[in-house]
Here is the input.
Amino acid sequence: MLYLLAEWLGFEGILNLVRYQSFRAGATLMTALVIGLIIGPRFINILRVRQGKGQPIREDGPQSHLAKRGTPTMGGLMILVSLTLSLLLWMNLASPFVWACLAVTIGFGLIGFLDDYDKVTKNSHAGVSARARLAAEFVVAGVASWLIVSQINTNLYLPFLTGVSIPLGPAYYVFAAIVIVGAGNAVNLTDGLDGLAIMPVIIAAGTFAIICYLAGRADYSAYLGIPHVPGAGDLAIFCAAIMGAGLAFLWFNAPPAAVFMGDTGSLALGGALGAIAVASHHEVVLAIVGGLFVLEAVSVIVQVFWFKRTGRRVFKMAPIHHHFEQLGWSESKVVIRFWIIAIVLALIGLSTLKLR
Here is the structure.
């Protein structure tokens, strides 16, 4: 909104700052952070009053988690509110990429909200059936993929290799939808400990803010040998909004958490990262930067597959962060060490921009 206003006024005087994506990214981050910190306490109080018993805690999970009974969930709502308001204030409203990624964020957030609502009202872990939820996610991701791919080509670019791509043609639409849905559910599986999911999301968003800015610049992308995507620079502002809203949420989610983000937040943020990766043509790099999320998802797949085949478990408990808890690691040790892993993976992901 402010960008269109500044453009209408000819970017005169101080409004010339609004012309620059880097300035708007910083402003978006701070705006989302401030909004989140302001609305957080009231949101948490409302959720606590309306939910009563809070998020159901699994009896067969780590025993230390039983102390978290009564903690409200659906904190992802405050993330969505602060993210959306800051975006609408600072984004270029003419950017199809930002609208497509915002549609995924809100759409996945709504699916997660319905799942959380079902769990809380029925005091059950079941929620919406997995089949119905996946179907809804693929509908949202399919529409977003169509919007995004209409602005880019259908090639899959490989990191560490200059000018090497795989032409997927129409199959790229399916691939893009799978990336978005996969990212959403991978972050969702990671969200099991206080602060565990939100910080790696912030780290990944910061990494993709850099990637999107560089991909959107013809000069920088040519120098680095990465695919140039006109308009991708606006996604750096979206990433900044995720970072600001995520930092505000972490303020309240730090151990002991005053609120959980629930599927409302984890699905929305994961889907957003997937859509950003597709729009910037860095889908494979997302698997590196978000390697922690991939590890969590793979641990669940391996556990279920092996248990059905043999009746035995590979891990003491899945997702894998619970495995380390069962080994005797404290929750804070698991969280901080996983944060370190997320930072290392982000640095490896950034290295793909130059090592080609």
